[in-house]
Amino acid sequence: MAEVGEIHPASIRSLDDFLLESARFQIPNFKDIEKWNNRVYQNLLYYQTNYFLTYLVVFLLVSLLHPTKMLCGTMAVAVAGGLFYLLTKNQESAHSFKKNHPLIFVASLFGVAGMVVYLMGSIATFLLGILLPILVIFVHASMRLRNLRNKVLNKLEWTGLRRSPMGVLLETIGWEQEINMEVKRSMEERARDLWSK
């Protein structure tokens, strides 16, 4: 028997439920941000496995359409991230190198800047590969109306009876539903009592 609060990946929702006939879509009311926020949050929880697969498919599609640019962009971002990490980690040694070897430092700076400008198209393609799937997921989560099953399964996540990877991710980035904590605690206690029987 599963423990209360244990992380369980959500099942894949059918294509009919996710996009086709039974799916109902509506443009959100942009004046009611709280309701729109709730719809996005609940859909992210309910369709999380479909969204992970959507992200992977769109990312791979961009990678297949522009493989060289994607590879160069990935390498450029990785090198820039590595240099930033090294320079921030070893500030004293970087400062002393800059002071002791100013000509090499300036030449390196121009070399890195030139490489970034040369690879700007590749970096843009890499960023498109990362951000386009997020945009697609956000648009779907914003427009997909919730059904009864969505509401029931999300209540299990909300009470802590069932935890999911998306729920943990949303908690980590600080996006939690504002709920009455006393109600949540009492529901968790009832759930533990039920699981222990």
From TrEMBL:
It comes from the Eukaryota. It is a multi-pass membrane protein. Keywords: Membrane, Transmembrane, Transmembrane helix. InterPro entries: Prenylated_rab_accept_PRA1. Pfam families: PRA1 (PF03208). The chain crosses the membrane at residues 44-62, 68-88, 100-120, 126-145. One of its GO terms (cellular component) is membrane. It is found in: Membrane. Its main location: membrane. Belongs to the PRA1 family. This is PRA1 family protein. It comes from Hyalella azteca (Amphipod).
